[in-house]
Design goal:
Distance between the termini: 59 Å
Strand order of the largest sheet: 2-8-7-6-5-3-4
Shape: globular
CATH class of the largest domain: Alpha Beta
Structural class: alpha/beta
Bound molecules: pyridoxal-5'-phosphate
Radius of gyration: 25 Å
Number of strands: 12
CATH architecture of the largest domain: 3-Layer(aba) Sandwich
Largest sheet: 7 strands, mixed
CATH topology of the largest domain: Aspartate Aminotransferase, domain 2
Length: 510
């Protein structure tokens, strides 16, 4: 406390109060310009500190080097703004993975567009908070309009749809399942679960149907909603990794259950596979339940004239999760939750005396607090709006198509390689495969080789590729390229494949 008081009084320490500058909003960007200049210079200089797409040596070496660079994270006396920024920018750059590197192709972890990063900085400078109109007049207007336009893009009626920007697919899926639960229980049992909690009559009977290939956030959401993960009915997938409709029909036909929602996936994390949306919409209607579509990955296809047809039927969903920080090249976070009917968001509404008093709202000071699970909320919509304005829908579509093309090329090369085995043709921009050694060892040995070769690429800082597991019945460990970098070339893909094969040969030879 003493030190803090001293800083504020501008005495003992070198950091006088006048030197601790606010960004000053639009009226004073001079200090921020200096600081950003210093930070960007440090990033430029750090390019040479790391040879490849990730720091070499593995977790212990990374932790050791970071400790050497930054020994005391909460010092009593500060070292000054430029020194601190430079230090952290350098250590972060040196010890981070670089999603712009063509050998970084593991996760739905995109290289962000420079224009989106700059827009995010504008959002930070102005720091609007979307929980009340009087903290965010411009952001409130822009988010409302962008949500309406994007609702139109998925095929919803922009006048009746609703939505909100979220931290990502995890939050959007939680919202989709929450609102489906509220709607179904209100319709079928006349209960208001927000007020009264879950009625005894439905306990143990509520079910959420999702595919075995769905994102794990479905299970977690169901647990958070108090239903217990055993309420999730994981429908097996067919050979194309899509929800098996015949099994779903059978499960929905069981008496005595309360189907809350069919949670479909449009773009599974591993395969990019898309559940049969029109059929699922029809089943949801027949069984008086809801359809939520997790398009956290596949939503990017909406911008591609070539791929958009894969999402036909999505507008029949009651709600949709989209993520612009995956197939949309935004820095995290940039998630969007859409509901076909804005009235479905009603269970989230809150009237809070110090944020959005009713008479203020009646007078037109509307607040987006009503749509979100969060209170303080930064305008993640701004970078999305800037990006769409800069590139247009077609510009984003070209990036999507470039990654899709690259995935098809990679799949062809893998398929043609005698020591690699392609698991499935790419739907969007992922390629799942595995190494098969020159000798053909047993399944457990193949799994071990594939796991080890990926770790070898990590440890040497050569490449970051994905890994998944198809489960015992389908034959275990698989490797994955998630191609989200539109600047990656075919030659880069060839190099990456060669690195995988070389590492596999080394591991197989052990
Ligand atoms: C990444 C992903 C999510 C989770 O989204 P976050 O933005 O990471 O919260 C949900 N569903 C699918 C299909 C995903 O690929």
């Amino acid at each position: 406390m003493d030190n803090q008081a001293a800083i504020l009084e501008g005495r003992r320490t070198g950091l006088a109060r006048s030197a601790v500058r606010l960004t000053g909003g639009v009226s004073d960007t001079a200090r921020l310009r200096q600081l950003l200049e210093a930070a960007l210079t440090a990033l430029d200089e750090s390019a040479v500190l790391r040879a490849g797409p990730l720091p070499a040596g593995g977790p212990d070496a990374v932790a050791r080097r970071i400790r050497t660079a930054v020994d005391d994270l909460v010092p009593a006396e500060g070292i000054g703004e430029i020194a601190a920024l430079t230090r952290f920018a350098r250590v972060m750059a040196a010890e981070s993975v670089d999603p712009t590197d063509p050998a970084c192709q593991a996760h739905l972890h995109c290289p962000p567009l420079a224009v989106a990063v700059a827009a995010d900085a504008v959002a930070s400078v102005l720091n609007p908070s979307l929980d009340s109109w009087d903290q965010a007049p411009a952001a409130t207007v822009l988010e409302s309009r962008l949500v309406a336009e994007l609702a139109g893009l998925v095929g919803y009626d922009p006048n009746t749809a609703g939505g909100v920007f979220t931290s990502g697919g995890t939050e959007s899926n939680l919202m989709g399942l929450l609102l489906a639960r509220e709607a179904v229980l209100a319709e079928r049992f006349g209960v208001d679960t927000v007020r009264d909690g879950l009625p005894a009559v439905v306990l143990g009977r509520m079910r959420v149907y999702t595919s075995a290939a769905a994102h794990f956030s479905m299970q977690r959401s169901v647990a958070l909603l108090g239903l217990g993960e055993s309420a999730v009915v994981a429908i097996p997938v067919d050979h194309r990794q899509r929800m098996d409709l015949s099994v779903l029909r059978r499960e929905l036909g069981r008496g005595d259950t309360v189907p809350l929602v069919i949670a479909a996936t449009a773009g599974t994390t591993d395969f990019g596979s898309i559940d049969p949306l029109p059929e699922l919409a029809e089943l949801a209607r027949q069984h008086r339940t809801r359809l939520h579509v997790d398009a956290a990955y596949g939503g990017g296809a909406l911008f591609s004239t070539r791929l958009a047809g894969l999402l036909d039927g999505i507008a029949r969903a009651d709600s949709i999760a989209l993520d612009f920080h995956k197939f949309g090249w935004q820095p995290i976070a940039a998630g969007l939750f859409l509901a076909g009917r804005s009235a479905d968001l009603a269970p989230l509404a809150r009237q809070v005396a110090y944020l959005n008093p009713a008479d203020d709202e009646d007078a037109g000071y509307t607040s987006l607090l009503h749509r979100s699970l969060r209170t303080s909320r930064r305008p993640d919509m701004l970078k999305v709006a800037v990006t769409l304005s800069a590139l247009g829908r077609n510009g984003i579509g070209e990036l999507v198509d470039a990654c899709h093309e690259l995935a098809r090329y990679a799949a062809d090369r893998i398929d043609a390689h005698d020591r690699l085995e392609l698991t499935a043709s790419p739907v969007l921009s992922t390629v799942v495969f595995r190494y098969r050694g020159p000798r053909y060892p047993d399944a457990a040995a193949i799994d071990a080789i594939n796991a080890a070769l990926r770790r070898e690429l990590l440890a040497t800082g050569t490449a970051i590729i994905g890994r998944t597991d198809l489960g015992a019945e389908s034959g275990g460990v698989r490797l994955k390229f998630t191609l989200l970098n539109p600047h990656t070339t075919r030659a880069d893909v060839d190099t990456l494949i060669a690195a995988v094969v070389a590492a596999g040969d080394r591991e197989a030879g052990r």
